[in-house]
Amino acid sequence: MRKARSFVVRTLMLAAVCLLGTSALVAPASAAEPSGQAKGETTWTAADGTENSARALSLKEVKAKGLAKYVDTDNYKMVAPRIVPPTQRSAPPAPEKRADSQSAVTPLASTCWEHWFGHGVDKLFGRTDVTWCGDGGKKWVNYSAAYCWGDDSLITYKYLGCQVAEDYGHPKADEYWNIYDVWSQWDLCTVWVPAWGSCVTHDRPQHKYRYGAAGGIWQLS
Q1: Alpha-carbon distance 113 to 58, whole Å?
Q2: Minimal CA–CA distance to 77: which of 57, 96, 97?
Q3: Which helix (H) or strand (E) holds 115?
Q4: Phi and psi for 26 in degrees, rounded to 5?
Q5: Pick from 204, 188, 183, 67: which is nearest to 124 by CA?
Q6: How far, in whole angstroms, is CA 46 from its chain's centroid?
């Protein structure tokens, strides 16, 4: 009788461990994962589980990143980014290109921001980092850049890569837009078989964000 009880207890404990392991596959990562939270950083989780973090860069950081040529360093201000939740139904600004007749004067940014968004858990995640600068009231994006990456740390998980597509922003000399769009997708393998060297189950989340010259952030998809 005592052996039977011991067997039941062990069975229940094993079931609990398996349940916890399964929930880890779908639980969102902490907003501070994997980089930690910087000073003045705002973190949030979107309705679809996407982890987000955004903040304004200091002038010291702007110079360290080699972005000083894009900003008015004498009048630089750290203006917090404005995150517009989809529930507010506030339409993002439509794309608008600066007219060629305005190209004689090169605008300089008054603030630079960074935003990262990601999907996954701490042992398997994809992330996209975005940096952009804007001239605030003059409405033009003066600098824009984005790249994606990810990592895995469990033998049965595998980060398989990512891709980024950019629209508008300031990708070319003498071409300025009022917005910057970034689309990103990651390939996260939630069931990786090392013996086969292949993935059984793929998760390919994708998201798109729009950024404004005054620091606005809109999730498009």
Answers
A1: 9
A2: 57
A3: strand 111-121
A4: -110, -10
A5: 188
A6: 11
- The 8-class DSSP code of residue 166 comes to E
Continuous segment of H or E residues that includes residue 218: strand 216-219
CB 111 within 8 Å of CB 215 = yes
Alpha carbon of residue 187 to chain centroid: 15
pLDDT tens per residue across span 124-165? 999 999 999 999 877 899 999 999 999 999 999 999 999 999
* Phi, psi angle pair for 163, to nearest 5°: -150, 155
C-beta of residue 118 within 8 angstroms of C-beta of residue 128: yes
pTM for the structure as a whole: 0.80
Question: What phi, psi does 63 have (nearest 5°)?
Answer: -65, -40
Question: CA 71: distance to chain centroid?
Answer: 23
Helix (H) or strand (E) holding 106: none
Cα dihedral value 91, 133, 83, 119, nearest 10 = 100
